[in-house]
Structure formats: structure tokens, C-alpha cells
Design brief:
The structure is a homodimer of 140-residue chains. Chain A has six helices and two strands. Chain A has 140 residues and is mainly alpha-helical. The longest helix of chain A has 19 residues. The radius of gyration of chain A is 17 Å and the shape is elongated. Chain B binds a DNA duplex (30 and 30 nucleotides) through helix 3.
DNA sequence: AGATAATCCTATTATATTACTAGGGATTCT
DNA sequence: AGAATCCCTAGTAATATAATAGGATTATCT
């Protein structure tokens, strides 16, 4: 029932890019400093995010990453799904890994859990997260 | 976002014991055959379940395991929590692993996910699962 | 009493996954 | 030219998980 650091760090990275949406591209170096994640590790989270078209890169000095859509048009499920396997158990994704699916009463439970988790992630956009972030910062 | 086999197998084991609630103790040998899980692996799931008082053992020939309460009085959250860490991220359990909690907007999301997952598991009793199992079996 | 069936306990190994690091190449800006 | 940046592939280290092994203990049954 664990979520990997890929998903967590990736979400933070995307939020970091979102918070700079108006200001231009965000470099991995800056992101790494703010998020306290190594540049090298961040580098590995980028390709999948690009592959699904959530971010765009600008190479060379002064370059970095920007969102391809407005923060209100990107939800957390898209981010998570690009970075890690979101199903709690394998049989939900590939039914052939287990021959017991039809008679397995627990199967439905894992499915329910997956759906509720996905619903939460789908309902939250980066814009929502930006708003939450602002609220938090003001309190601190 | 993965659930370990401990939790899955343990839940199936508990359901197996529940389905024999009226018939007396269930031996690991029988359970292993029905569930297609090795006796040796099942053996490892037992101690935590005993420790939290969900099952009771009867040693010696003809022995096995029985529930300590009626199946309607045991929910899946209790089972899962005894077998694996149920929080999606460590900072939910031990706030000191991360210094960013106060300013981290994503923290609240993982918390929401944990709560919705727990609510589902808490709402399902072994009696509910027995009912579902019966329905499934009749269809097959 | 003795054979058998079961739980109990501890340790070990195997496997997989995850997290992270390293090094160098390509591109763009100043 | 030189610096800053992304890009790509590979490799390693650490951790966690899954599974196995062997033997000790306890109870039942004949």
C-alpha cells in the first residue's frame, strides 16, 4: 500500500513548474534546490512526463521546463500514472497474472480502492495544488 | 501505490478461516491447498494476526485456526493493518521523516487517499466478504 | 507409549524493486 | 568560445519483499 518516491517527487516537481507558470521555464537545478531532490534523480522523472505531453523542454542556457497546458487542465492522476503503476495489485492491470480472479472476492475490494484513489487524484488539478500551497505558505 | 502480498494473502487466509467458522479450526495445510499459497509462507502471516487478537490457534493433530470473533465483527482494515504498513507515504505515520510537512501541499493529498482507502477497508467485514464469495461461486 | 498431525520459532536465501549515481553528449544562449 | 542547460544510457547501492528451510513443541488418536 505504498506509493513510490517517483510519484511523490514527480508530483512535487510538476507543482514546482506550475508555480512558475507565468515566469518562464524552470531549470532542474533550481527545482532541485527548492525541492531538495538531486538533479540526477529529477532527470529521471522528466522523460515519462514529457512522453505523455505534460511538459515541454527548452534546451540550452536559460532553458528548463514548462507546462504544456494551463495548471487547471492537468490533474494529479495524469502525473501519477505517467510515473508509476497506480494499481494496488497487478491483477487489476493484467488479469492473466492470476487465475483466481473470477472466484476471488477480494479482487473487487482492491478494485474499489483503486477507483476511489483514482477519483481523488483525478479531481485535483495543479491549479488546486497551487492554491493549497499558497494557503500553507501564508500560515507558516 | 502497491499493496504487498502479505496483505492480500492474509486477507484471503482470514476469509478462508471465516468460511469455516462453524466447522471448526482450519489447518494451514488445508488453507494452503485451497488458496494455492505455500504453508511456509502462510505460517509467516499468522503471528501478526494472532498478536492483534483476530485469530486463535489450536495446536496438535486436528488443530488449526479459528476467528476470535464473529465474522461480522472483523473488518478488513484490522487485517491489513496487522500485516502491512497501510499508509501510502511514510510521513503520514512518522512526521519526523520529512521536514517539509508543514509547507508540503501534496501531504494533504496522500492523507486524503489514505483515509478513503481506510474507510473502504473498515466498512467491509469478513461476513460481507463471505456473502460476496457465495455470490461469486454461484455464478462460476 | 508411540506415531502422527499440527502449530511454533528463527534464520536464511532469493528475487525484485526502488532509489540513486555517474559520465558524457547535444543544444542553445550570451 | 564558454557556460548553462537538457538529454541519454548505464550502472550500482540499498532496501524490501517473497519464499524457503529446518527443527522444536504441543496435542490427538490408536
Amino acid at each position: 500500500m505504498k506509493m513510490s518516491t517517483r510519484g511523490r517527487y514527480g508530483t512535487r516537481a510538476m507543482l514546482d513548474i506550475a508555480l512558475n507558470y507565468e515566469k518562464g521555464p524552470v531549470s532542474l537545478k533550481d527545482m532541485a534546490q527548492r525541492q531538495e531532490i538531486s538533479v540526477k534523480y529529477l532527470e529521471q522523472l522528466i522523460p515519462p512526463l514529457k512522453a505523455v505531453g505534460l511538459i515541454r523542454s527548452i534546451r540550452g542556457a536559460g532553458g528548463g521546463y514548462t507546462l504544456t497546458r494551463h495548471p487547471s487542465k492537468i490533474n494529479l492522476l495524469e502525473i501519477m500514472q505517467s510515473l508509476e503503476r497506480t494499481s494496488p495489485v497487478d491483477c487489476l492491470d493484467s488479469p492473466d497474472v492470476c487465475s483466481r480472479i473470477n472466484k476471488c472476492a477480494t479482487y473487487d475490494v482492491w478494485k474499489e480502492i483503486q477507483e476511489s484513489t483514482n477519483n481523488i487524484l483525478r479531481s485535483l488539478t495543479l491549479a488546486d495544488m497551487m492554491e493549497r500551497q499558497r494557503t500553507k505558505s501564508n500560515k507558516g
